[in-house]
Specification:
Blueprint: H1 16-20, H2 27-46, H3 55-74, E1 107-110, H4 113-117, H5 123-134, E2 139-140, H6 151-155, H7 159-176, E3 180-183, H8 186-200, E4 207-210, H9 211-220, E5 233-237, H10 251-258, E6 263-266, H11 284-287, H12 289-305, E7 310-313, H13 316-328, E8 334-337, H14 338-344
Parallel strand pairs: 1-2, 1-3, 3-4, 5-6, 5-7, 7-8
Helix pairs in contact: 5-14, 9-10, 12-13
């Protein structure tokens, strides 16, 4: 495989190769290094015309370069004003107390670009905020001081640019001084939990957990009472690659889903470590959106095969990607995040 081959940009970064490799070799890390070579040594210096390869490569790398420019200028993937990161709170019944930089909060919530900047995903932080409030857990955010976690830049081969975001986010969280940070995005989780300490070369000084771990504990401790929702049926779970294969978190979301009355939990054909990617990883949506649709169609078909009426994930990007696939392929399954599913089961 050559560094100028378009195939390195069609890698989802899902770690399926590693899960099946008898020698536990990380193809994803190899791809990341090759992408860095292309972007840092060639594209960012001489432009897309300096690249060998076909037009698909030129078009895709150009799009990834523009993604990097958006994040570098606006500190988020959408290119919108970063001060709008709390727009998702506008439709809450009541704006949470201490929403921005409250040093007395129980949790610091790193919302992530997809949930904060894309209206289609606002329901995820809204649901999580509602659930935390019901459980009596006080949270705060960095507000406009939250920058992109750097994952899209890292996957786009733009390591130096990602490092600037990483240093900023770590400095902001350390200044806030809250010992526990929670995320609802598995890519943010992977960055904070694994990549950040590696890249800055030292421990963060605080714990980082995914929302499913918080929800699991709240249910187990009796702080959250879950009741039978108005709608009932069959629910299945899609393992996000960054939370499952990369993070090893498989049991917590399943415990939560099994605790909701009125729903029967079933597994899809490929689940856990062997779960099929939703198609939305590795910056593929920017490079080759048609391929994303093909992969997502396969996954949504697996949900239909087991008779699921609800497909739950624990990732804003997975929910976006699979929701689009359900509509495009006319599959009658409702796709939602686990925070939304739990919120639906509140009394």
């Amino acid at each position: 495989m050559l560094a100028t081959d378009a195939s390195i940009w069609r890698c989802l970064g899902c770690d399926t190769c590693t899960a099946h490799c008898p020698h536990d070799l990380s193809v994803r890390r190899l791809v990341e290094v090759m992408r860095q070579h292309v972007m840092q040594e060639r594209y960012l210096v001489s432009g897309v015309d300096a690249l060998d390869g076909d037009e698909a490569l030129h078009k895709g790398v150009r799009a990834l370069g523009m993604l990097g420019q958006r994040i570098g200028t606006h500190y988020n993937v959408s290119g919108e004003d970063n001060a709008a990161r709390l727009a998702w709170t506008d439709n809450l019944d009541e704006r949470p107390e201490g929403l921005v930089r409250d040093a007395e909060a129980d949790l610091a919530y790193f919302v992530g670009c997809v949930s904060a900047m894309f209206p289609m995903s606002y329901g995820i932080p809204q649901s999580f905020a509602t659930v935390l409030d019901r459980a009596g857990v006080r949270f705060t955010t960095l507000g406009g001081d939250e920058w992109c976690c750097g994952f899209p830049l890292l996957m786009a081969g733009q390591l130096k640019q990602a490092q600037a975001l990483i240093r900023h986010n770590v400095e902001q969280m350390r200044a806030l001084g809250i010992p526990r940070v929670v995320v609802t995005c598995p890519s943010c989780y992977h960055m904070w939990h694994h990549s950040y300490p590696e890249i800055i070369g030292e421990p963060l000084g605080f714990d980082v957990v995914h929302a499913v771990e918080v929800l699991r504990d709240l249910v187990a401790d009796g702080q959250l009472e879950l009741t039978e929702p108005r709608r009932t049926g069959v629910v299945t779970y899609h393992d996000p690659c960054d939370l499952g294969r990369k993070g090893g978190i498989y049991d917590a979301p399943r415990r939560i889903l099994r605790s909701v009355p009125g729903y029967t939990f079933v597994e899809m054909q490929q689940s856990g470590e062997h779960a099929l990617c939703c198609g939305g990883g590795g910056d593929l949506e920017t490079f080759d959106p048609d391929l994303v649709e093909e992969v997502a169609a396969q996954r949504i078909a697996q949900a239909a095969e087991v008779g699921a009426t609800v497909l739950v994930s624990a990732c804003p990007q997975c929910v976006r990607t699979l929701s689009k696939a359900a509509r495009a392929n006319r599959v009658r399954v409702r796709v939602m995040d686990i925070t939304q599913f739990v919120n639906m089961a509140l009394p």
